[in-house]
């Protein structure tokens, strides 16, 4: 257990806990005993319940921050691990950064602060300069969680971008991005598909500016066709409203493409009336995956429909046949046991006993007959998706949902295997199969592509 006043790494003395974002995550204000400067330490407890992706994100944050050098991004100082004796029975990982005295924009909003149009424009310009630096690095760095609580305003009205816990260096994307990051209301739709691009950060900035102008979280504002409606709630320059609307376009093709373009338009107080024909819309830097040669999955898609056939679990029909034989053996064993128990009965009424045995054997063969032919199908059309099981002409629906309610399609690790997960606004649907990583990644990307292209 970590406590105020505790010295860790023989260097950092903890002062007070600043936040506890989730189970196993803590943020502390501490004093660096070597420099006598205040620092911020982010700590992650490595517990058995922790998803492996959390540690990967934490390590990625440290690696990316170490390579950054910008006056409005807190400087990386150190990365370390604590053993169980120091961490109260759990190993901990720590990330140390410069401490920025000030208040987050979220804290100011919570305190009732009202931002003027001039203040919001200045904040927008300052953040765009930070994004220009990040996005024009090689490879580009995407923040992916830009929102008021991650923006610190100091006493001199300088803005700082903090908390790179969802950061993505795009060169590291070799397949499909499946870690779900971002905050509802600020993250654009493509980010929930695992396809964040540079203009995804622009959308988050636009949503943040809407929050500052309206004092209302974007998630709580009305929407039409997935577009945030806010113009009737603010009294600011019309061109500024139109600029923010271009920042928060749900369509990548219509949204402002780069932070540099957005800053130039904001400074000139002009509107981009039409798409620049020389500008190619951004696409996610995600490699197109191919079906593994060993896969027995079948997939057929058109512009109107996507049909997926999932073979029986495990090793396919062979697995089901083996399971059928196992159950057949159990039935045989049960019959043998019944034979020994009712041996005396057979002497007086043998026909009754043999009738019972025949019925048990017949039920076992019938079960095996249906099991071997059992198939699972996943169907998507314009309106809904359905997970269906068919066996010997008998069809029944396992799960279904509306396409309009789908938040995203992801792959999740299940012990040593993976599964495809469809998340909607009301529940989580699992396809009911386990796959190897390559097969699951391919299938997830195929479903994502079909849904995303509609």
Automatic annotation (TrEMBL):
InterPro entries: Kinase-like_dom_sf, Prot_kinase_dom, Ser/Thr_kinase_AS. CDD domains: STKc_PknB_like (cd14014). This is Protein kinase domain. The keyword Transcription does not apply. GO terms for molecular function: ATP binding; protein serine/threonine kinase activity. PROSITE patterns: PROTEIN_KINASE_DOM, PROTEIN_KINASE_ST. Keywords: ATP-binding, Coiled coil, Kinase, Membrane, Nucleotide-binding, Transferase, Transmembrane, Transmembrane helix. The chain crosses the membrane at residues 325-345, 351-372. Residues 12-293 form the Protein kinase domain. Residues 249-276 form a coiled coil. Gene3D superfamilies: Phosphorylase Kinase, domain 1, Transferase(Phosphotransferase) domain 1. It comes from the Bacteria.
């Amino acid at each position: 257990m970590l406590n105020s006043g505790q010295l860790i790494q023989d260097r950092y003395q903890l002062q007070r806990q600043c936040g506890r974002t989730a189970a196993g995550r803590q943020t502390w204000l501490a004093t660096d005993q070597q420099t006598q400067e205040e620092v911020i330490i982010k700590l992650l407890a490595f517990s058995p319940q922790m998803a492996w992706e959390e540690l990967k994100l934490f390590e990625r944050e440290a690696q990316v921050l170490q390579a950054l050098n910008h006056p409005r991004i807190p400087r990386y100082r150190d990365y370390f691990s604590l053993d169980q004796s120091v961490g109260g029975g759990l190993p901990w990982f720590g990330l140390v950064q410069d401490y920025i005295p000030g208040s987050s924009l979220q804290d100011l909003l919570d305190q009732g602060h009202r931002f003027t149009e001039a203040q919001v424009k200045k904040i927008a310009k300052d953040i765009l300069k930070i994004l220009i630096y990040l996005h024009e690095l090689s490879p580009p760095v995407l923040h992916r969680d830009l929102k008021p609580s991650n923006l610190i305003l100091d006493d001199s009205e300088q803005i700082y971008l903090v908390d790179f816990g969802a950061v993505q260096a795009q060169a590291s994307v070799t397949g499909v991005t499946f870690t779900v990051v971002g905050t509802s209301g600020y993250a654009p739709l493509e980010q929930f598909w695992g396809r964040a691009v540079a203009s995804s950060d622009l959308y988050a900035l636009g949503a943040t500016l809407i929050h500052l102008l309206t004092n209302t979280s974007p998630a709580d504002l009305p929407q039409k066709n997935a577009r945030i409606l806010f113009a009737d709630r603010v009294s600011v320059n019309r061109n500024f409203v139109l600029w923010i609307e271009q920042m928060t376009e749900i369509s990548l093709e219509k949204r402002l493409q780069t932070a540099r373009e957005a800053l130039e338009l904001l400074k000139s107080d002009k509107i981009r009336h039409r798409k620049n024909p020389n500008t190619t819309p951004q696409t996610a830097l995600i490699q197109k995956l191919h079906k593994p040669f060993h896969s027995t999955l079948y997939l057929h898609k058109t512009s109107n429909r996507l049909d997926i056939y999932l073979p029986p679990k495990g090793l396919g029909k062979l697995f089901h046949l083996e399971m059928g034989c196992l159950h057949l053996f159990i039935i045989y064993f049960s019959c043998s046991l019944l034979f020994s128990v009712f041996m005396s009965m057979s002497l007086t009424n043998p026909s009754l006993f043999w009738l019972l045995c025949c019925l048990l054997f017949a039920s076992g063969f019938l079960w095996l007959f249906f099991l071997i032919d059992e198939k699972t199908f996943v169907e998507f059309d314009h309106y809904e998706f359905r997970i269906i099981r068919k066996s010997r002409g008998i069809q029944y629906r396992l799960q279904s949902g509306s396409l309009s309610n789908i938040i995203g399609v992801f792959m999740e690790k299940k012990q040593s295997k993976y599964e495809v997960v469809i998340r909607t606004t009301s529940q989580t649907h699992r396809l009911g199969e386990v796959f190897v990583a390559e097969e699951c990644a391919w299938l997830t990307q195929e479903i994502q592509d079909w849904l995303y292209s509609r």
